[in-house]
Design goal:
- By secondary structure, the chain is mainly α.
- Helices cover 78% and strands 0% of the residues.
- It has 2 domains: 243 residues, Rhopdopsin 7-helix transmembrane proteins, CATH 1.20.1070; 139 residues, no CATH class.
- The protein is built from 16 helices and no strands.
Length: 395
């Protein structure tokens, strides 16, 4: 693998991080968000500093042959810890327990980082090796222990992630399961990376030359594993957000029929809240629901509860479940009230009404189902037709 093979994944993770920074700045106390950002930073740093051109530049700048080795090992160890911490925060649970487990993982891997630096300082690695340091110094005192230690720490994290995520994936569904399965696959690649490195090092100890496992096979495995692990963590967060946004826009559109019809019930000059073009869709849905509730309150004096009961019975007889039948009945009552309100332009009925029934007195209304029923339900259309005939007869 050459420089671009490392820099492209680093740039991809950095690009993903750029999308997370605004949210991080808004809610920096969120441990889950902090863990995601830490994982992206460390993942991108691992690729960047493991690239041979960067290794050579760091060694040259520091003036220490192979200084990049402990640097990359420390970053990779921190990345492994960040994966475990993110998984702990992702699973949730009592905050005290979550913080305690996270601190234990951070503490354990911090000890590993310090040990890696101490072992490098104690050892001797005078000849710069850009790609095969693991096998070249596999038998050198202290450097040997440093190599084994970082591989053990990395492999422990890979095994732990594989086991935990697989068990968790069997209990969940949707985006979360997809993300967990991707993490499992990524962890298996990371584990294969460790096996390749260990095999090459052990072969050196046995006097064999399996260096190709370390220099040719292991780096692509690590790249794929890190990218898949990061993608697995990000996918459920981004996917759920996209899914929530899609459902919110769908609700906003479906509420349109009911919202537009109820606007005619509002008195002239009724102030309305202006929504910015860039307002989030959740705010738009909330505002539309608020307008609908206001319109229902305006129509309250015109509501025919007996019509609602009859419409409910008709909807049930037509095969609707109780929830859908209730929405159809409410929609029929609203449609009838709208015609009654239109036939009373001066609002005499409204003015003479002594009390107003609370909008929630009959239980919560399913506004989306009501809106769809206004457009499609035969029961609602029949209520409109009867109201029109009644008006014609009166006239």
């Amino acid at each position: 693998m050459e420089g671009p093979d490392y820099y492209i994944p680093a740039a991809a993770l950095g690009f993903a991080l750029a999308f997370k920074i605004p949210g991080m700045l808004r809610d920096w106390r969120d441990p889950l968000l902090r863990s995601v950002c830490a994982l992206l930073v460390l993942g991108a740093s691992t690729f960047f500093f493991a690239a041979p051109p960067t290794i050579a530049a760091v060694n040259r700048i520091t003036g220490v042959p192979n200084f990049s080795a402990p640097l990359v090992y420390c970053i990779l160890t921190a990345f492994s810890a960040s994966c475990l911490v993110l998984l702990v925060n992702w699973r949730g649970g009592p905050p005290e327990e979550t913080r305690l487990i996270s601190r234990r993982w951070v503490g354990a891997y911090s000890v590993v980082v310090v040990a890696l630096l101490v072992l490098f300082i104690q050892g001797e690695a005078p000849v710069e090796r850009l790609r095969d340091l693991d096998t070249h110094y596999a038998t050198t005192p202290y450097i040997r222990e440093m190599i084994v230690l970082y591989l053990v720490a990395h492999s422990v994290a890979a095994v732990g992630m594989t086991a935990l995520c697989w068990r968790w994936s069997l209990k969940v569904s949707s985006w979360l399961r997809g993300g967990l399965v991707i993490i499992v696959v990524g962890s298996l690649f990371n584990l294969a990376y460790g096996v390749s490195k260990f095999s090459a090092v052990f072969a050196r100890w046995a006097g064999l030359d399996w260096d190709a496992l370390s220099t040719l096979a292991a780096p692509p495995l690590a790249s794929v594993g890190a990218l898949l692990s990061a993608l697995g963590f990000i996918l459920p967060l981004v996917g759920q957000r996209m899914s929530d946004t899609w459902h919110a826009w769908a609700s906003y559109r479906r509420l349109g029929t009911l919202w537009r019809e109820l606007r005619t019930a509002s008195p002239q000059g009724t102030p309305s809240v202006r929504i910015s073009l860039f307002s989030p869709v959740e705010l738009r849905v909330t505002q539309r629901e608020s307008d609908i509730h206001d319109g229902i309150l305006q129509l309250d004096p015109y509501f025919d509860r007996e019509l609602r009961a009859r419409s409910f019975d008709r909807a049930v007889a037509a095969g609707a479940d109780p929830r859908q039948a209730q929405a159809v009945a409410d929609a029929a009552m609203v449609a009838d009230a709208l015609r009654a309100r239109a036939a009373d332009p001066e609002g005499q009925i409204m003015k003479s009404a002594e009390t107003y029934t609370s909008a929630t007195a009959e239980g919560p209304r399913d506004l989306v189902r009501m809106s769809l029923a206004l457009r499609h339900s035969p029961v609602v259309e029949a209520a409109r037709t009867r109201a029109a005939r009644s008006e014609s007869g009166t006239l």
